[in-house]
Amino acid sequence: MNSKTRSKSVDISLERGRDYSRARISTRLSGLRQVRARSQSAVQAIHRQLFARRHHNTEDAPYCLPNDDEEVDRLDQQHYVLRALFGRNYLAPIQAPAYVLDIGAGTGTWQMEMAAEFPDSQFIGIDISPIQPTSCLPSNCQFEMVNMLEGLPYQNHRFDYVHQRMVSLGVPTDRWDMLLSEHARVCRPGGWLELLETDWAPCDGGPGAQQLTHYIRELCKARDCEPRETANLTSQIEEAGFGDVRRLRVQLPIGGWGGLIGTQARHVVLSAWEAMRGPMLEHGVATNEQLDETFALLEAELVEQPMWLCLVVYIGQRRAD
Prior knowledge:
Structural class: alpha/beta
Strand content: 15-25%
CATH architecture: 3-Layer(aba) Sandwich
Number of domains: 1
Strand order of the largest sheet: 1-9-10-8-7-4-5-6
């Protein structure tokens, strides 16, 4: 580790009193969905069907969650849960970044909110699934279909702030160094990097949670990714070119015991776990009957005891070359 850098780890468990009810979220989503329509031919070329769910069609990308309307709803609800948990859309000490890159843009909601908050900044969001709005965008906001695993198609030092969130299921085991090097390459000296990731395994819980964790691990092994690596990226981020790297470990409550955030997180996280069913069946990780039994146990455990999803945030400032 560079002697001029330092790593800090902080445990955080937060709850905010803002109303992020599903009814309020669904009203907003119905408006966003209207501007996400694409031609049928384009949909067939870039997507594939897997056990009644639509997924990306990029062969070398291991990301296993779908990208259909149901997942669009879940991703937007996930955004509101995370915003409520942290109380804001970003933690890096940015002030007025001229150019911002959002890696794994998803539905684009984070970026559009940030574009409204920073109207003088230019935002580019990239994803392998073009599920972002195609009209009614802020003038300082654009989206591009890019596979981050093929490198970032931008010039050196282009961005003042590089943001990445919840893409751990899409990074092959041996590609983190390459990806972080690309983050550093496109970030200007003095600019900021912010990552928010999870390994998607339930923390605490009983036999149902333990069995689901086993299935998730086996699915990731079959798809050549290891989300658990996101728990210890500090040294790799530093080696890529970032200094003053901070690591924050955050506990997201799952269930009504966690208040409004926990109630909404329960739906968001359970829906993500259920969305892994198709890929698990495809890779022979478990049968439908085994998954039904596991989810039934998990539902009961969520009623009886606290459960968490462990998140980790990294913030680092780009060093001069």
